[in-house]
Write a structure and sequence with these properties.
Blueprint (H helix, E strand, L loop, with lengths): L1 H15 L20 E2 L2 E2 L6 H4 L2 E6 L2 E6 L11 E7 L6 E12 L3 E10 L4 E9 L4 E11 L4 E11 L4 E13 L11 E6 L13 E3 L3 H5 L2 E2 L4 E2 L1 H10 L3 E4 L22 E3 L7 E3 L4 H11 L2 E6 L6 H15 L6 E4 L16 H18 L4 E5 L15 H9 L5 E4 L2 E4 L9 H29 L9 E10 L15 H16 L3 E6 L11 E3 L5 E3 L1 H7 L8 E2 L2 E5 L2 E4 L8 E5 L1 E7 L5 E7 L6 E8 L6 E8 L30 H4 L6 E5 L2 E3 L2 E6 L4 E7 L2
Parallel strand pairs: 12-34, 13-16, 13-25, 16-19, 19-20, 20-21, 21-22, 22-24, 23-24, 24-25
Antiparallel strand pairs: 1-2, 3-4, 4-11, 5-10, 6-9, 6-11, 7-8, 7-10, 12-29, 14-15, 17-18, 26-27, 28-32, 30-31, 32-33, 33-39, 34-38, 35-36, 35-39, 37-38
Keywords: Signal
Protein name: Alpha-L-arabinofuranosidase
């Protein structure tokens, strides 16, 4: 999506910049209120001949109205207009953009501005969007100031979709002074922790993962030894994983469970997806995943094949697990994966009406064999540029037509930063976008709960839980992108901690499965190492800091004051105006031990946080476990395998020290020590991009 925007900007630049080669010759922004009109077109805005074929453009009662047609499919030249602005007067300031915009009947309204440098390359980019049904005034401010090399701004307005109406008005572009550094006093963060308070009991299934059946379960099956890999078992158990989603993501909607039972030698080798060439032997099937779950003290979430399978096949799988492995091992059954996506890779994309009908049929078939099974339906509430649900009415239709038969609504709303950015010099900005994203994830979870309750019967309101069945740090799926392999960094671990805090705080979230446990490529939280074998990434180490959370009581923790940071709109992440630099969560176990986990999103400076305890003991023995590295881009030297014919990006230079290239197995440390405790206040010195888990035990 962002890549299309960036190509659109280049096209608009070609259209609107002829004759403006000298600095300062681009015009000033004009007619953002669309009051000046000639032949129903707004004066000062350029429309290409190609874009003009994608729909109609008119000014109606002082508003720009774009009506896309069937030719307005995703492309570099959607129905849209643009103009150029001289940016020299805004150098050193942060871009601001505001507009009133709305979408209706399938159209999405988009307003954006990009800053081009003297070479015509996009340096900064901000965007506003309004989905069908949205009508609102929006404002955004870029997190970083424009550099001295910025020459021109390209402002554009456009419509997405092949029908409906996008309405835009009152577009304004400007600058805001760059953020000033905080003083020492402003750098402190103050919390109040109610040690004897009582929040919800933290669900065990929040510490979940995904295991795919393909490629020997991405290493879970040790082919050389003919058994489950002992190191992956040990690392998974140490991290405290409690729920395993299987057979993993998109492959679920092409999976036939019958291929994964019986003797290994008798099992077939099949294509992952019917029309693709890659194949795998079914070495990881039902008995192996049950064995793995049992060994690490976990249960299973089964995702059934709703894309190409039948309710009868799912029911037979449920009966097989019940009769062979017992009732308790697989309590949750999810109906399909991401079937709401356009052109889902499984080939199983469908309308919400078809899915709702399938959901009811699969639920009835599974519960005929497992009456107490918890059934999960799928959906996603799009937000900002994070728009992977192709149907704006999917959630409402599915919940209205089948909400009465589900216990869980499964979403994939917490991947970040999902960038198209390819400049390693902007790595800090990319990481800030990721570390601020838990703010928008939390809001989306709240919006999802509200939508569920607005769409189901009164008897079901408040009773359908939310499961985030895929989530985690994810930068780029393009191996040529220099951020492709950054899932393994310390900064990614920081995102893990801050996102887990969001899940724990949200009373409707009862399950979360990170994606994914291990991988030969870039997404595994356990990664391959040179010479063979596997190693935990910092992401899994961070998850392990929460291993005592399941079953504990969440404690009220009030952040009274403290510094925040802003992030830019990058990739599929919206801009965030204020995310806390220091974030924390606390819980108490049955024996009274308090665990507090705090993290510092400042990529360069340590931060001090002070926690005043109320209602607790007079004194505590304090133990601190501090996780950090020399840089947010440092890692533990896990690798991805080379794939013949696939070009991988050379590692870029990410900041001073070049720690992404220099990292070793010992670059990320987990050190045990103590912390400041005096007069009922706990004081933590948090390292840059660091996480600290502190336990307080009353003597």
């Amino acid at each position: 999506m962002l890549a299309r925007f960036l190509r659109l900007i280049v096209i608009l630049a070609v259209l609107v910049l002829p004759g403006c080669a000298d600095e300062g010759q681009a015009g000033t922004f004009a007619n953002g209120d669309f009051e000046t009109v000639e032949n129903d077109r707004p004066v000062g805005w350029s429309l290409s001949d190609v874009a003009a074929t994608k729909g109609t453009v008119a000014v109606v009662k002082g508003e720009l109205v774009l009506r896309p047609n069937e030719l307005n499919t995703p492309s570099d030249t959607p129905l849209g207009l643009g103009q150029a602005i001289d940016a020299t007067s805004l150098r050193g300031q942060r871009l601001t953009l505001s507009a009133r915009l709305s979408g209706a009947d399938g159209a999405v309204a988009v307003v954006g501005v990009a800053a081009l440098d003297t070479a015509g390359q996009v340096e900064r980019f901000v965007v506003l969007r309004a989905a069908p049904g949205d009508e609102q005034n929006q404002t955004t401010t870029d997190a970083e100031p424009l550099s001295e090399s910025v020459k021109t701004l390209i402002v554009f307005v456009s419509a997405e979709g092949t029908k409906g109406t996008a309405t835009i008005d009152d577009v304004a572009v400007g600058g805001m002074a760059a953020t000033q550094p905080t003083t020492p006093d402003e750098a402190l963060t103050f919390f109040t922790l109610q040690a004897d308070g009582k929040g919800r009991t933290i669900p065990a299934d929040i510490l979940g993962t995904n295991v795919e059946w393909i490629r020997d379960g991405n290493g879970l099956w040790n082919k050389a030894q003919g058994q489950l890999d002992a190191d992956i078992i040990a690392m998974s158990a140490q991290a405290g994983i409690r729920m395993i989603r299987f057979p993993g993501g998109v492959w679920s909607d092409t999976y036939d469970w019958r291929d994964g039972i019986g003797p290994q030698s008798a099992r077939p080798t099949t294509r992952h997806i019917p029309d693709q060439d890659e194949t795998s032997h079914h070495s990881i099937g039902t008995p192996e995943i049950v064995d793995f779950a049992t060994r690490i003290g976990a249960q299973l979430m089964i995702t059934v094949n709703a894309g190409h399978g039948t309710p009868e096949q799912a029911a037979a799988w449920a009966a097989h697990i019940r009769d062979t492995h017992g009732l308790a091992i697989a309590p949750v059954w999810e109906i399909g994966n991401e079937l709401y996506m356009e052109n889902d890779m499984s080939g199983g994309s469908m309308t919400p009406e078809v899915y709702a009908e399938k959901l009811r049929a699969f639920e009835a078939a599974i519960r005929a064999e497992l009456p107490d099974a918890r059934i999960a339906g799928i959906g996603l509430v799009n937000y900002g540029p994070y728009r992977f649900n192709a149907h704006d009415d999917w959630n409402r239709i599915v919940l209205e037509q089948a909400g009465d038969v589900i216990d869980v609504f499964a979403v994939h709303n917490a991947y970040a930063p999902l960038v198209v950015e390819s400049s390693s010099r902007r790595w800090a900005e990319v990481y800030r976008a990721m570390l601020a994203s838990p703010v928008t994830i939390a809001q989306n979870l709240s919006d999802t709960a509200a939508l569920i309750d607005a769409s189901v019967s009164p008897a079901k309101r408040g009773k359908i839980a939310i499961a985030v069945t895929e989530w985690g740090p994810s930068y780029s799926y393009d191996p040529k992108n220099p951020y492709f392999d950054h899932v393994k960094t310390m900064g990614s671990a920081l995102f893990v901690a801050r996102t887990l805090n969001v899940f724990m705080r949200d009373a409707r979230v009862d399950s979360a499965q990170f994606f994914k446990l291990s991988d030969w490529l870039n997404m595994g939280w356990i990664g391959p190492v040179k010479g063979g074998g596997w190693r935990e990434t910092p992401a899994l180490m961070a998850l392990g800091l929460y291993r005592d959370a399941p079953g504990a009581t969440l404690l009220p923790l009030d952040r009274r004051e403290g510094p925040t940071f802003a992030s830019s709109h990058l990739g599929f992440q919206p801009a965030v105006e204020a995310a806390p630099l220091v974030d924390a969560v606390a819980f108490r176990d049955a024996a009274g031990k308090i665990t507090l986990i705090a993290s510092n999103a400042d990529l360069e400076q340590p931060r001090e946080a002070r926690f005043t305890l109320s209602g607790g003991a007079a004194d505590y023995k304090v133990t601190a476990h501090s996780m950090s590295g020399p840089s947010a881009v440092a890692h533990r030297d896990t690798i991805h395998i080379d794939v013949p014919g696939v070009p991988f990006a050379a590692p870029g230079q990410f900041g001073n020290g070049d720690w992404f290239a220099r990292a070793s197995a010992d670059s990320i440390t987990l050190e045990t020590g103590t912390a400041g405790w005096a007069d009922g206040t706990l004081t933590l010195q948090l390292p840059p991009a660091g996480i600290m888990a502190v336990t307080l035990v009353s003597p």
